[in-house]
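Researcher: For the annotation table, I need structure tokens for TetR family transcriptional regulator. Please keep the output clean. Sequence:
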Amino acid sequence: MNNKELKKRRMWTFFIDATEELIKTEGFQQVTIRKVADKAGYNSATIYNYFGELSHLLFFASLKFLKPYLETVSREMEKTDDPVEKYLIAWECFSEYSFKIPDIFQTVFLMDLGDHPKTLLASYYELYPSDLMAIPEELQPALMERNIADRGRFTIGPLVKAGLLSEIQAEEVNELTNLVWQGMFTTLLNNRNHYTPEEAQKRTMKYIREIVEHKVGLSKTEPARNA
């Protein structure tokens, strides 16, 4: 690695760490380019030499807050070999943490980052490889998918391989469960109801379980519809 690349990585780390600290101390909504620059000891113009916009910096810093979620989902999914339970555990963990820290999950999974979100993800794990190494190898491909639908397809894939769902049924489950989560998440994020994060998760998982159990039960009585 040449000196230019080393400097770039060092500067990225300075600004990402400063953003992370501001989120912790002042709150997500209070982060600005000027505050990040002051915290890191540089001027605002310097940040734009390394990050295209504030959303990219927030994205990188937000990924660092996902560590507890990633550790939990990895640990819990390893407790069972049942593909249905693994799928439900994945949703349990995702909904729990997304409702606890909605600003972080909004930034990582839903915020408009421009045309190259996968490139940003790859850059993050290149900068912080230990975050990726701590995740079981079977789950690592999902971490490189920011798109919720694509991540869902990866998670539900084992149900298709086990013959519990046809490909079409799996796609339907993926779409329905994502819609349930997105609806509740958006409602909670925008303060459109009075649910606590725990209540929101409980209701979300109730609907997701019903969808999965219905489709898995249906697959046992319907002919395959993959064609």
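Researcher: And a one-line annotation?
Model: Residues 223-227 have pLDDT under 50 and may be disordered.
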